[in-house]
Design a protein that fits this description.
The complex is a heterodimer of chains A (348) and B (261). Chain A has 9 helices and 17 strands. With 348 residues, chain A is α+β, with helices and mostly antiparallel strands. Chain B has 2 domains: 1-177, no CATH class; 182-261, no CATH class. Chain B has helices at residues 14-22, 44-56, 63-81, 83-88, 96-106, 108-115, 120-123, 132-135, 145-150, 154-167, 173-177, 181-187, 195-205, 222-236, 247-259, and strands at residues 2-3, 5-7, 29-31, 33-34, 37-38, 40-41. The relative contact order of chain B is 0.10. The chains are: A alpha+beta (348), B mainly alpha (261). The interface between A and B is large, with 40 and 37 residues.
Protein backbone atom coordinates (compact mmCIF):
# COMPACT_ATOMS: atom_id res chain seq x y z
CA UNK A 1 0.00 0.00 0.00
CA UNK A 2 1.24 3.47 -0.78
CA UNK A 3 0.64 6.18 1.77
CA UNK A 4 0.68 9.89 1.07
CA UNK A 5 -0.27 12.69 3.39
CA UNK A 6 -1.27 16.28 2.77
CA UNK A 7 -2.35 19.31 4.76
CA UNK A 8 -4.50 22.24 3.71
CA UNK A 9 -4.75 25.85 4.79
CA UNK A 10 -8.43 25.94 3.98
CA UNK A 11 -11.46 24.23 5.47
CA UNK A 12 -12.91 23.18 2.14
CA UNK A 13 -10.67 24.30 -0.74
CA UNK A 14 -8.89 22.03 -3.24
CA UNK A 15 -5.35 23.20 -2.37
CA UNK A 16 -3.21 20.65 -0.56
CA UNK A 17 0.46 20.52 0.22
CA UNK A 18 2.32 17.27 0.63
CA UNK A 19 3.76 16.43 4.07
CA UNK A 20 6.03 13.64 5.18
CA UNK A 21 5.02 10.90 7.58
CA UNK A 22 7.79 9.90 10.00
CA UNK A 23 8.58 6.23 10.13
CA UNK A 24 9.12 4.68 13.58
CA UNK A 25 12.02 2.25 13.50
CA UNK A 26 12.31 -0.84 15.63
CA UNK A 27 8.90 -2.35 15.08
CA UNK A 28 8.10 -5.46 13.12
CA UNK A 29 5.34 -3.78 11.16
CA UNK A 30 5.53 -0.41 9.48
CA UNK A 31 4.45 2.39 11.76
CA UNK A 32 4.24 6.02 10.68
CA UNK A 33 3.58 9.15 12.71
CA UNK A 34 2.39 12.62 11.95
CA UNK A 35 2.48 15.37 14.56
CA UNK A 36 -0.49 17.55 13.89
CA UNK A 37 0.10 20.04 16.70
CA UNK A 38 2.79 21.78 14.65
CA UNK A 39 0.48 21.93 11.61
CA UNK A 40 -2.28 23.41 13.78
CA UNK A 41 0.09 26.07 15.06
CA UNK A 42 0.94 26.94 11.47
CA UNK A 43 -2.75 27.54 10.79
CA UNK A 44 -3.40 24.36 8.83
CA UNK A 45 -7.03 23.27 8.85
CA UNK A 46 -7.15 19.75 7.44
CA UNK A 47 -5.14 16.57 7.03
CA UNK A 48 -5.64 14.21 4.10
CA UNK A 49 -4.42 10.65 4.01
CA UNK A 50 -4.36 8.97 0.61
CA UNK A 51 -3.90 5.22 0.42
CA UNK A 52 -3.59 3.25 -2.79
CA UNK A 53 -2.08 0.07 -4.09
CA UNK A 54 0.62 0.09 -6.71
CA UNK A 55 1.25 -3.63 -6.99
CA UNK A 56 -0.74 -6.77 -6.22
CA UNK A 57 -2.02 -6.47 -2.66
CA UNK A 58 -1.65 -10.12 -1.72
CA UNK A 59 -5.29 -11.16 -1.53
CA UNK A 60 -5.67 -12.03 -5.22
CA UNK A 61 -5.31 -15.79 -4.83
CA UNK A 62 -7.70 -15.65 -1.91
CA UNK A 63 -10.26 -13.99 -4.16
CA UNK A 64 -9.66 -16.16 -7.20
CA UNK A 65 -9.82 -19.52 -5.41
CA UNK A 66 -12.67 -18.41 -3.17
CA UNK A 67 -14.63 -17.01 -6.10
CA UNK A 68 -15.02 -13.66 -4.34
CA UNK A 69 -16.03 -10.33 -5.88
CA UNK A 70 -14.98 -6.86 -4.81
CA UNK A 71 -18.43 -6.48 -3.21
CA UNK A 72 -17.56 -9.31 -0.80
CA UNK A 73 -14.78 -7.18 0.61
CA UNK A 74 -14.46 -3.76 2.10
CA UNK A 75 -11.38 -1.57 2.21
CA UNK A 76 -10.99 1.31 4.61
CA UNK A 77 -9.32 2.53 7.76
CA UNK A 78 -10.00 1.65 11.38
CA UNK A 79 -9.66 4.75 13.52
CA UNK A 80 -9.18 4.55 17.28
CA UNK A 81 -8.66 7.46 19.65
CA UNK A 82 -8.94 7.03 23.38
CA UNK A 83 -8.94 10.72 24.29
CA UNK A 84 -11.51 11.65 21.64
CA UNK A 85 -13.37 8.39 22.32
CA UNK A 86 -13.53 7.29 18.71
CA UNK A 87 -13.57 3.77 17.36
CA UNK A 88 -14.87 3.59 13.82
CA UNK A 89 -14.36 2.40 10.27
CA UNK A 90 -14.09 4.78 7.30
CA UNK A 91 -14.69 3.26 3.92
CA UNK A 92 -12.43 3.45 0.87
CA UNK A 93 -12.77 1.58 -2.43
CA UNK A 94 -11.65 -1.83 -3.57
CA UNK A 95 -11.70 -3.19 -7.11
CA UNK A 96 -11.03 -6.67 -8.42
CA UNK A 97 -10.40 -7.58 -12.02
CA UNK A 98 -11.11 -11.33 -12.15
CA UNK A 99 -9.68 -11.75 -15.67
CA UNK A 100 -6.35 -10.25 -14.67
CA UNK A 101 -6.65 -11.61 -11.12
CA UNK A 102 -5.70 -8.17 -9.90
CA UNK A 103 -7.10 -6.37 -6.85
CA UNK A 104 -6.54 -2.72 -6.13
CA UNK A 105 -7.52 -0.32 -3.40
CA UNK A 106 -7.71 3.41 -2.97
CA UNK A 107 -9.08 5.79 -0.43
CA UNK A 108 -8.82 9.39 0.67
CA UNK A 109 -9.55 10.22 4.25
CA UNK A 110 -9.83 13.78 5.46
CA UNK A 111 -9.56 14.92 9.07
CA UNK A 112 -10.38 18.43 10.30
CA UNK A 113 -7.68 19.41 12.76
CA UNK A 114 -10.34 21.12 14.86
CA UNK A 115 -11.99 17.74 15.46
CA UNK A 116 -8.79 16.06 16.59
CA UNK A 117 -7.82 15.85 20.21
CA UNK A 118 -5.15 13.51 21.53
CA UNK A 119 -3.69 10.73 19.43
CA UNK A 120 -5.47 8.93 16.60
CA UNK A 121 -4.40 5.44 15.55
CA UNK A 122 -5.21 4.58 11.96
CA UNK A 123 -4.94 1.13 10.42
CA UNK A 124 -5.74 0.45 6.75
CA UNK A 125 -7.59 -2.88 6.48
CA UNK A 126 -9.35 -5.12 3.98
CA UNK A 127 -12.33 -6.83 5.54
CA UNK A 128 -14.32 -9.80 4.40
CA UNK A 129 -18.03 -8.98 4.35
CA UNK A 130 -19.43 -12.38 3.49
CA UNK A 131 -19.02 -15.81 4.98
CA UNK A 132 -16.62 -17.99 3.04
CA UNK A 133 -14.09 -20.74 3.41
CA UNK A 134 -10.49 -19.64 3.32
CA UNK A 135 -9.13 -21.10 0.09
CA UNK A 136 -5.70 -21.41 1.61
CA UNK A 137 -6.54 -23.09 4.93
CA UNK A 138 -10.09 -24.40 4.38
CA UNK A 139 -11.13 -22.70 7.62
CA UNK A 140 -14.53 -21.02 7.71
CA UNK A 141 -14.09 -17.23 7.70
CA UNK A 142 -16.90 -15.01 8.94
CA UNK A 143 -17.94 -11.47 7.99
CA UNK A 144 -15.88 -8.76 9.63
CA UNK A 145 -12.64 -10.74 9.47
CA UNK A 146 -9.62 -8.60 8.63
CA UNK A 147 -7.87 -10.44 5.80
CA UNK A 148 -5.17 -7.84 5.12
CA UNK A 149 -3.79 -4.75 6.81
CA UNK A 150 -1.23 -2.10 5.96
CA UNK A 151 1.15 0.22 7.75
CA UNK A 152 -0.35 1.91 10.80
CA UNK A 153 -0.35 5.67 11.11
CA UNK A 154 -0.53 7.62 14.36
CA UNK A 155 -1.71 11.20 14.27
CA UNK A 156 -0.08 12.68 17.34
CA UNK A 157 -1.04 15.72 19.28
CA UNK A 158 2.58 16.32 20.14
CA UNK A 159 5.53 18.41 19.24
CA UNK A 160 8.16 15.74 19.53
CA UNK A 161 11.29 16.19 17.51
CA UNK A 162 13.13 13.42 15.81
CA UNK A 163 16.17 14.25 17.88
CA UNK A 164 15.78 13.14 21.46
CA UNK A 165 17.77 16.15 22.63
CA UNK A 166 14.96 18.41 21.40
CA UNK A 167 12.50 16.69 23.70
CA UNK A 168 14.24 18.03 26.75
CA UNK A 169 14.71 21.32 28.42
CA UNK A 170 18.10 21.70 30.05
CA UNK A 171 18.87 23.49 33.27
CA UNK A 172 22.25 24.13 34.84
CA UNK A 173 22.17 23.64 38.59
CA UNK A 174 24.73 23.76 41.36
CA UNK A 175 24.30 20.20 42.65
CA UNK A 176 26.42 20.76 45.75
CA UNK A 177 24.11 23.57 46.87
CA UNK A 178 20.89 21.79 45.85
CA UNK A 179 20.16 18.80 48.07
CA UNK A 180 16.84 18.16 46.30
CA UNK A 181 18.73 16.71 43.35
CA UNK A 182 20.19 13.25 43.09
CA UNK A 183 23.01 12.79 45.58
CA UNK A 184 26.52 11.94 44.36
CA UNK A 185 25.58 12.68 40.80
CA UNK A 186 26.20 15.38 38.24
CA UNK A 187 22.86 15.10 36.48
CA UNK A 188 19.21 14.53 37.31
CA UNK A 189 16.04 14.08 35.33
CA UNK A 190 12.36 14.98 35.66
CA UNK A 191 10.58 12.91 33.07
CA UNK A 192 7.12 13.82 34.36
CA UNK A 193 7.34 17.44 33.27
CA UNK A 194 6.34 18.50 29.81
CA UNK A 195 8.85 19.00 28.31
CA UNK A 196 10.97 16.76 30.51
CA UNK A 197 13.92 18.48 32.12
CA UNK A 198 17.52 17.31 32.42
CA UNK A 199 19.38 19.04 35.22
CA UNK A 200 23.13 19.26 34.72
CA UNK A 201 25.64 20.25 37.33
CA UNK A 202 27.35 23.55 36.66
CA UNK A 203 30.65 21.73 37.16
CA UNK A 204 30.06 19.97 33.84
CA UNK A 205 30.30 23.32 32.09
CA UNK A 206 33.56 24.08 33.92
CA UNK A 207 34.84 20.64 33.01
CA UNK A 208 34.02 21.28 29.36
CA UNK A 209 35.69 24.63 29.46
CA UNK A 210 38.89 23.08 30.73
CA UNK A 211 38.73 20.06 28.45
CA UNK A 212 37.63 21.87 25.30
CA UNK A 213 40.81 21.52 23.27
CA UNK A 214 41.17 21.33 19.50
CA UNK A 215 42.41 18.23 17.70
CA UNK A 216 46.16 18.31 17.14
CA UNK A 217 47.87 18.92 13.79
CA UNK A 218 47.61 15.27 12.74
CA UNK A 219 43.87 15.34 13.51
CA UNK A 220 44.32 13.25 16.62
CA UNK A 221 42.10 14.03 19.58
CA UNK A 222 43.93 15.26 22.67
CA UNK A 223 43.37 13.18 25.80
CA UNK A 224 41.31 15.99 27.29
CA UNK A 225 38.82 15.81 24.43
CA UNK A 226 38.61 12.02 24.64
CA UNK A 227 37.97 12.35 28.36
CA UNK A 228 35.32 14.98 27.80
CA UNK A 229 33.55 12.85 25.22
CA UNK A 230 33.64 9.79 27.47
CA UNK A 231 32.21 11.92 30.25
CA UNK A 232 29.42 13.27 28.02
CA UNK A 233 28.66 9.80 26.80
CA UNK A 234 28.23 8.55 30.35
CA UNK A 235 25.77 11.39 30.98
CA UNK A 236 23.87 10.52 27.80
CA UNK A 237 23.77 6.84 28.78
CA UNK A 238 22.61 7.73 32.26
CA UNK A 239 19.83 9.97 30.95
CA UNK A 240 18.56 7.31 28.52
CA UNK A 241 18.75 4.59 31.18
CA UNK A 242 16.79 6.70 33.62
CA UNK A 243 14.14 7.58 31.02
CA UNK A 244 13.69 3.92 30.14
CA UNK A 245 13.72 2.82 33.78
CA UNK A 246 11.11 5.48 34.61
CA UNK A 247 8.87 4.10 31.88
CA UNK A 248 9.27 0.50 33.06
CA UNK A 249 8.73 1.52 36.68
CA UNK A 250 5.54 3.40 35.84
CA UNK A 251 4.19 0.49 33.79
CA UNK A 252 4.77 -1.85 36.73
CA UNK A 253 3.23 0.68 39.12
CA UNK A 254 0.11 0.86 36.96
CA UNK A 255 -0.15 -2.93 36.91
CA UNK A 256 0.23 -3.10 40.69
CA UNK A 257 -2.48 -0.45 41.07
CA UNK A 258 -4.88 -2.38 38.85
CA UNK A 259 -4.19 -5.60 40.74
CA UNK A 260 -4.83 -3.87 44.05
CA UNK A 261 -8.22 -2.77 42.70
CA UNK A 262 -8.95 -6.11 41.11
CA UNK A 263 -6.87 -9.13 42.15
CA UNK A 264 -7.90 -10.98 38.99
CA UNK A 265 -6.66 -8.24 36.66
CA UNK A 266 -4.90 -9.84 33.71
CA UNK A 267 -5.58 -7.63 30.69
CA UNK A 268 -2.67 -5.39 29.87
CA UNK A 269 -3.72 -3.88 26.56
CA UNK A 270 -4.66 -0.48 27.92
CA UNK A 271 -1.74 0.00 30.32
CA UNK A 272 -0.12 1.97 27.50
CA UNK A 273 -2.92 4.55 27.76
CA UNK A 274 -2.29 5.00 31.48
CA UNK A 275 1.25 6.19 30.87
CA UNK A 276 2.26 9.81 30.68
CA UNK A 277 2.70 11.35 27.24
CA UNK A 278 6.51 11.40 27.53
CA UNK A 279 6.51 7.74 28.46
CA UNK A 280 4.25 6.72 25.58
CA UNK A 281 6.44 8.70 23.21
CA UNK A 282 9.60 7.10 24.55
CA UNK A 283 8.22 3.60 23.92
CA UNK A 284 6.98 4.61 20.47
CA UNK A 285 10.18 6.28 19.37
CA UNK A 286 12.81 4.07 21.02
CA UNK A 287 11.52 0.49 21.26
CA UNK A 288 15.03 -0.85 20.66
CA UNK A 289 16.12 0.29 24.10
CA UNK A 290 13.82 -2.12 25.90
CA UNK A 291 15.10 -5.40 24.50
CA UNK A 292 15.38 -7.47 21.39
CA UNK A 293 11.73 -7.29 20.50
CA UNK A 294 11.69 -7.86 16.78
CA UNK A 295 8.37 -9.71 17.13
CA UNK A 296 6.61 -6.72 18.60
CA UNK A 297 4.21 -5.11 16.20
CA UNK A 298 3.08 -1.96 17.96
CA UNK A 299 4.05 0.26 20.93
CA UNK A 300 0.93 -0.88 22.76
CA UNK A 301 2.13 -4.50 22.51
CA UNK A 302 5.60 -3.64 23.70
CA UNK A 303 4.06 -1.94 26.73
CA UNK A 304 1.82 -4.94 27.33
CA UNK A 305 4.87 -7.26 27.21
CA UNK A 306 6.67 -5.08 29.76
CA UNK A 307 3.60 -5.14 31.98
CA UNK A 308 3.33 -8.92 31.84
CA UNK A 309 7.03 -9.66 32.32
CA UNK A 310 8.11 -11.33 35.55
CA UNK A 311 10.27 -9.51 38.09
CA UNK A 312 13.44 -11.48 37.17
CA UNK A 313 12.93 -10.60 33.49
CA UNK A 314 12.58 -6.92 34.37
CA UNK A 315 15.64 -7.10 36.60
CA UNK A 316 17.61 -8.69 33.77
CA UNK A 317 16.39 -6.01 31.39
CA UNK A 318 17.28 -3.09 33.65
CA UNK A 319 20.67 -4.39 34.62
CA UNK A 320 21.91 -6.08 31.45
CA UNK A 321 19.77 -5.82 28.33
CA UNK A 322 18.95 -2.15 28.52
CA UNK A 323 22.50 -0.82 29.06
CA UNK A 324 23.70 -3.15 26.31
CA UNK A 325 20.95 -2.01 23.97
CA UNK A 326 21.71 1.63 24.61
CA UNK A 327 25.40 0.97 24.13
CA UNK A 328 25.20 -1.30 21.09
CA UNK A 329 22.01 -0.58 19.21
CA UNK A 330 22.03 3.10 19.89
CA UNK A 331 25.72 3.51 20.43
CA UNK A 332 26.36 4.97 17.02
CA UNK A 333 22.98 6.56 16.65
CA UNK A 334 22.08 10.19 16.80
CA UNK A 335 20.40 9.75 20.16
CA UNK A 336 23.54 9.46 22.20
CA UNK A 337 25.34 12.03 20.08
CA UNK A 338 22.53 14.48 20.61
CA UNK A 339 22.68 14.21 24.35
CA UNK A 340 26.44 14.35 24.21
CA UNK A 341 26.08 17.63 22.39
CA UNK A 342 23.64 18.87 24.96
CA UNK A 343 25.85 17.93 27.82
CA UNK A 344 28.68 19.38 25.80
CA UNK A 345 29.97 22.84 25.12
CA UNK A 346 26.97 23.78 22.94
CA UNK A 347 25.15 24.38 26.19
CA UNK A 348 27.88 26.46 27.75
CA UNK B 1 -26.41 29.72 33.62
CA UNK B 2 -22.90 28.68 34.65
CA UNK B 3 -19.75 29.80 32.85
CA UNK B 4 -17.62 26.83 31.89
CA UNK B 5 -14.34 26.84 33.81
CA UNK B 6 -11.18 24.78 34.14
CA UNK B 7 -8.75 24.25 36.96
CA UNK B 8 -5.58 26.24 36.33
CA UNK B 9 -3.50 23.23 37.22
CA UNK B 10 -4.26 19.67 36.19
CA UNK B 11 -4.23 17.53 39.35
CA UNK B 12 -2.03 14.50 38.81
CA UNK B 13 -1.92 12.85 42.20
CA UNK B 14 -4.36 11.76 44.87
CA UNK B 15 -2.51 13.92 47.42
CA UNK B 16 -3.46 17.02 45.39
CA UNK B 17 -7.10 15.95 45.33
CA UNK B 18 -7.02 15.47 49.07
CA UNK B 19 -5.67 19.01 49.48
CA UNK B 20 -8.33 20.48 47.18
CA UNK B 21 -11.14 18.66 48.99
CA UNK B 22 -9.89 19.91 52.35
CA UNK B 23 -9.50 23.47 51.14
CA UNK B 24 -11.72 24.10 48.12
CA UNK B 25 -10.96 27.81 48.30
CA UNK B 26 -7.41 27.01 47.20
CA UNK B 27 -8.57 25.51 43.90
CA UNK B 28 -7.50 28.03 41.27
CA UNK B 29 -9.76 28.16 38.23
CA UNK B 30 -9.99 30.05 34.96
CA UNK B 31 -13.03 30.80 32.85
CA UNK B 32 -13.09 29.21 29.40
CA UNK B 33 -13.19 31.73 26.59
CA UNK B 34 -13.59 30.94 22.90
CA UNK B 35 -12.83 33.85 20.55
CA UNK B 36 -13.14 36.22 23.51
CA UNK B 37 -16.56 34.96 24.62
CA UNK B 38 -17.44 32.84 27.60
CA UNK B 39 -19.11 29.47 27.07
CA UNK B 40 -22.03 28.72 29.32
CA UNK B 41 -24.12 25.77 30.34
CA UNK B 42 -27.34 25.40 32.39
CA UNK B 43 -27.02 26.26 36.08
CA UNK B 44 -24.96 23.54 37.70
CA UNK B 45 -25.73 24.26 41.35
CA UNK B 46 -29.38 23.75 40.54
CA UNK B 47 -28.57 20.49 38.78
CA UNK B 48 -26.51 19.24 41.71
CA UNK B 49 -29.43 20.03 44.01
CA UNK B 50 -31.80 18.02 41.83
CA UNK B 51 -29.40 15.07 41.80
CA UNK B 52 -28.94 15.22 45.59
CA UNK B 53 -32.72 15.30 46.01
CA UNK B 54 -32.93 12.05 44.04
CA UNK B 55 -30.28 10.48 46.25
CA UNK B 56 -31.88 11.68 49.49
CA UNK B 57 -35.45 10.98 48.42
CA UNK B 58 -37.43 9.11 51.04
CA UNK B 59 -39.19 5.95 49.94
CA UNK B 60 -38.82 2.25 49.60
CA UNK B 61 -35.88 2.36 47.24
CA UNK B 62 -32.53 1.17 48.61
CA UNK B 63 -29.59 3.55 49.06
CA UNK B 64 -27.96 2.06 45.98
CA UNK B 65 -31.11 2.49 43.88
CA UNK B 66 -31.34 6.12 44.93
CA UNK B 67 -27.73 6.72 43.96
CA UNK B 68 -28.39 5.12 40.58
CA UNK B 69 -31.44 7.35 40.11
CA UNK B 70 -29.21 10.35 40.83
CA UNK B 71 -26.61 9.04 38.38
CA UNK B 72 -29.21 8.64 35.66
CA UNK B 73 -30.48 12.17 36.07
CA UNK B 74 -26.98 13.61 36.14
CA UNK B 75 -25.85 11.60 33.09
CA UNK B 76 -28.74 12.89 31.00
CA UNK B 77 -28.59 16.49 32.18
CA UNK B 78 -24.83 16.93 32.01
CA UNK B 79 -24.71 15.58 28.47
CA UNK B 80 -27.57 17.77 27.31
CA UNK B 81 -26.12 20.75 29.19
CA UNK B 82 -22.77 20.45 27.45
CA UNK B 83 -24.18 20.79 23.93
CA UNK B 84 -22.74 24.32 23.58
CA UNK B 85 -19.35 23.08 24.73
CA UNK B 86 -19.46 20.28 22.13
CA UNK B 87 -20.26 22.88 19.47
CA UNK B 88 -17.85 25.65 20.48
CA UNK B 89 -14.99 23.97 22.32
CA UNK B 90 -15.13 20.17 21.92
CA UNK B 91 -11.47 19.81 22.91
CA UNK B 92 -12.36 20.85 26.47
CA UNK B 93 -14.13 17.51 26.88
CA UNK B 94 -10.73 15.82 26.70
CA UNK B 95 -9.17 18.12 29.25
CA UNK B 96 -8.65 16.74 32.74
CA UNK B 97 -8.78 20.29 34.18
CA UNK B 98 -12.39 20.67 33.02
CA UNK B 99 -13.58 17.39 34.57
CA UNK B 100 -11.70 18.06 37.80
CA UNK B 101 -13.43 21.46 38.01
CA UNK B 102 -16.80 19.71 37.78
CA UNK B 103 -15.88 17.00 40.29
CA UNK B 104 -14.10 19.18 42.85
CA UNK B 105 -16.24 22.32 42.75
CA UNK B 106 -19.52 22.19 40.85
CA UNK B 107 -20.50 18.65 41.90
CA UNK B 108 -18.43 18.41 45.07
CA UNK B 109 -21.34 17.38 47.33
CA UNK B 110 -22.55 14.75 44.88
CA UNK B 111 -19.01 13.40 44.39
CA UNK B 112 -18.41 13.13 48.13
CA UNK B 113 -21.71 11.35 48.76
CA UNK B 114 -21.34 9.07 45.76
CA UNK B 115 -17.72 7.98 46.18
CA UNK B 116 -16.41 9.08 49.58
CA UNK B 117 -19.30 8.14 51.93
CA UNK B 118 -20.03 11.84 52.46
CA UNK B 119 -17.88 14.57 53.96
CA UNK B 120 -17.67 13.35 57.55
CA UNK B 121 -13.97 12.52 57.16
CA UNK B 122 -13.30 16.14 56.18
CA UNK B 123 -14.85 17.42 59.41
CA UNK B 124 -13.73 14.73 61.81
CA UNK B 125 -10.10 13.60 61.68
CA UNK B 126 -10.94 10.34 63.46
CA UNK B 127 -13.04 9.25 60.47
CA UNK B 128 -10.78 7.45 58.01
CA UNK B 129 -10.03 9.09 54.67
CA UNK B 130 -11.43 7.45 51.54
CA UNK B 131 -9.17 4.96 49.78
CA UNK B 132 -6.82 6.28 47.10
CA UNK B 133 -8.83 4.44 44.44
CA UNK B 134 -11.89 6.56 45.39
CA UNK B 135 -9.97 9.84 45.37
CA UNK B 136 -8.42 8.88 42.04
CA UNK B 137 -11.93 9.19 40.59
CA UNK B 138 -11.55 12.99 40.76
CA UNK B 139 -8.69 12.85 38.23
CA UNK B 140 -9.32 12.37 34.51
CA UNK B 141 -6.39 11.28 32.36
CA UNK B 142 -7.59 11.86 28.81
CA UNK B 143 -5.50 9.17 27.12
CA UNK B 144 -6.65 6.45 29.50
CA UNK B 145 -10.02 4.80 28.91
CA UNK B 146 -9.66 3.27 32.37
CA UNK B 147 -9.38 6.69 33.99
CA UNK B 148 -12.19 8.18 31.87
CA UNK B 149 -14.56 5.36 32.78
CA UNK B 150 -13.91 5.80 36.49
CA UNK B 151 -14.09 9.58 36.77
CA UNK B 152 -16.88 10.86 39.05
CA UNK B 153 -18.60 12.84 36.29
CA UNK B 154 -16.90 11.83 33.05
CA UNK B 155 -18.16 8.23 33.36
CA UNK B 156 -21.79 9.45 33.42
CA UNK B 157 -21.14 11.69 30.44
CA UNK B 158 -19.73 8.65 28.61
CA UNK B 159 -22.88 6.59 29.31
CA UNK B 160 -25.06 9.40 27.97
CA UNK B 161 -22.77 9.97 24.98
CA UNK B 162 -22.90 6.27 24.15
CA UNK B 163 -26.69 6.18 24.32
CA UNK B 164 -27.00 9.40 22.34
CA UNK B 165 -24.42 8.26 19.78
CA UNK B 166 -26.35 5.05 19.26
CA UNK B 167 -29.77 6.46 18.36
CA UNK B 168 -29.95 10.10 19.43
CA UNK B 169 -31.80 9.36 22.70
CA UNK B 170 -30.95 8.84 26.35
CA UNK B 171 -33.16 5.76 26.51
CA UNK B 172 -30.24 3.37 27.01
CA UNK B 173 -28.80 4.98 30.14
CA UNK B 174 -30.95 2.89 32.53
CA UNK B 175 -29.68 -0.38 31.09
CA UNK B 176 -26.11 0.84 31.57
CA UNK B 177 -26.81 1.63 35.21
CA UNK B 178 -28.54 -1.67 35.88
CA UNK B 179 -25.32 -3.19 37.20
CA UNK B 180 -22.40 -0.75 37.45
CA UNK B 181 -19.87 -3.53 37.07
CA UNK B 182 -21.03 -4.00 33.45
CA UNK B 183 -20.55 -0.48 32.01
CA UNK B 184 -17.34 -0.30 34.04
CA UNK B 185 -15.93 -3.38 32.35
CA UNK B 186 -17.01 -2.20 28.88
CA UNK B 187 -15.94 1.43 29.02
CA UNK B 188 -12.61 0.78 30.73
CA UNK B 189 -11.59 -1.09 27.58
CA UNK B 190 -10.99 0.33 24.13
CA UNK B 191 -13.81 -1.81 22.79
CA UNK B 192 -16.20 0.56 24.59
CA UNK B 193 -15.19 3.44 22.32
CA UNK B 194 -17.76 2.48 19.67
CA UNK B 195 -21.32 3.32 20.87
CA UNK B 196 -22.93 0.45 18.97
CA UNK B 197 -20.41 -2.11 20.11
CA UNK B 198 -20.50 -0.81 23.70
CA UNK B 199 -24.26 -1.08 23.92
CA UNK B 200 -24.32 -4.55 22.35
CA UNK B 201 -21.67 -5.65 24.83
CA UNK B 202 -23.56 -4.26 27.82
CA UNK B 203 -26.74 -6.02 26.76
CA UNK B 204 -24.88 -9.29 26.25
CA UNK B 205 -22.90 -9.05 29.49
CA UNK B 206 -26.08 -8.49 31.49
CA UNK B 207 -27.27 -11.91 30.33
CA UNK B 208 -24.48 -13.53 32.33
CA UNK B 209 -25.44 -14.51 35.85
CA UNK B 210 -23.65 -16.34 38.64
CA UNK B 211 -23.51 -20.15 38.58
CA UNK B 212 -23.97 -21.84 41.95
CA UNK B 213 -21.59 -24.46 43.23
CA UNK B 214 -22.43 -28.01 42.21
CA UNK B 215 -20.91 -31.36 43.11
CA UNK B 216 -18.65 -31.20 40.06
CA UNK B 217 -18.15 -27.46 39.54
CA UNK B 218 -17.05 -24.49 41.61
CA UNK B 219 -19.33 -21.48 41.96
CA UNK B 220 -18.65 -18.81 39.35
CA UNK B 221 -19.68 -15.22 39.94
CA UNK B 222 -21.31 -13.09 37.25
CA UNK B 223 -18.29 -10.81 37.44
CA UNK B 224 -15.90 -13.63 36.65
CA UNK B 225 -18.03 -14.67 33.71
CA UNK B 226 -18.20 -11.12 32.39
CA UNK B 227 -14.46 -10.77 32.66
CA UNK B 228 -14.03 -13.93 30.60
CA UNK B 229 -16.58 -12.63 28.11
CA UNK B 230 -14.77 -9.32 27.68
CA UNK B 231 -11.45 -11.10 27.31
CA UNK B 232 -12.90 -13.29 24.56
CA UNK B 233 -14.37 -10.26 22.78
CA UNK B 234 -11.01 -8.50 22.99
CA UNK B 235 -9.40 -11.55 21.46
CA UNK B 236 -12.01 -11.58 18.71
CA UNK B 237 -11.26 -7.93 17.96
CA UNK B 238 -7.68 -8.80 17.06
CA UNK B 239 -8.96 -10.53 13.91
CA UNK B 240 -12.49 -9.22 13.38
CA UNK B 241 -13.44 -5.57 12.86
CA UNK B 242 -16.80 -5.57 14.66
CA UNK B 243 -17.07 -1.83 13.90
CA UNK B 244 -17.86 -2.68 10.28
CA UNK B 245 -20.80 -4.95 11.11
CA UNK B 246 -24.43 -4.21 11.81
CA UNK B 247 -26.20 -4.95 15.10
CA UNK B 248 -27.47 -8.35 13.96
CA UNK B 249 -24.00 -9.52 12.94
CA UNK B 250 -22.36 -8.18 16.09
CA UNK B 251 -24.96 -9.96 18.21
CA UNK B 252 -24.36 -13.19 16.35
CA UNK B 253 -20.66 -13.04 17.30
CA UNK B 254 -21.42 -12.09 20.90
CA UNK B 255 -24.06 -14.79 21.31
CA UNK B 256 -21.59 -17.37 20.13
CA UNK B 257 -19.12 -16.24 22.79
CA UNK B 258 -21.82 -16.19 25.46
CA UNK B 259 -22.70 -19.82 24.76
CA UNK B 260 -19.16 -20.85 25.57
CA UNK B 261 -18.82 -18.85 28.81
Amino acid sequence: MELSAFVSNSSDGPEWESVELNRSEGYYEELYRYQYKAALQEGKKRFRLAISSIEAIGIEDYMRVGGLNASDLRFGILIVSTSSRVRKFEKGAIQYDAKENRASINGEFIFDFEDLSGNFEIEPVIILMTETTCPLTNVKVRPGTVIASGASIILENALKHDNLKDWFKFEWVNFDASPEFRANSRNDLDFELDPPVIYLDEDIANFHHIMNKSDNERGKQPKAVVARRAHDRSIAMDVLMRCAATVVEHIREQVAKRISEDPEFDEYDDIFDSLRQNERDFITYYPDIFADRSGVIKPRELCSDLAKASQPVIFQMLTKTMPRNINCKLGASEVVKDIQELAGYEND
Amino acid sequence: MTDVCLLKRDPKAVSEILGYLREPSKVAIEVLEVDGSRVSMPDLSNLQEKVLNEIRKSGAASEEEKKVAGDELLAREIHAGLSEVRRLAPWILNDGKFWSWLALLEFRDYALIRWCDGDEWLKDSSTPEPKDSKLDRFIMRPESVHSQSRHVIRRLYIYAECSFGFDGTYNHIPIMLQDLDVPGSVFERRLGLSPTLALMLIRSALKLSASPKTSSKKAVSARQKRRKFMREVNLLLSTVALETLDEREINSYLDQILVNI
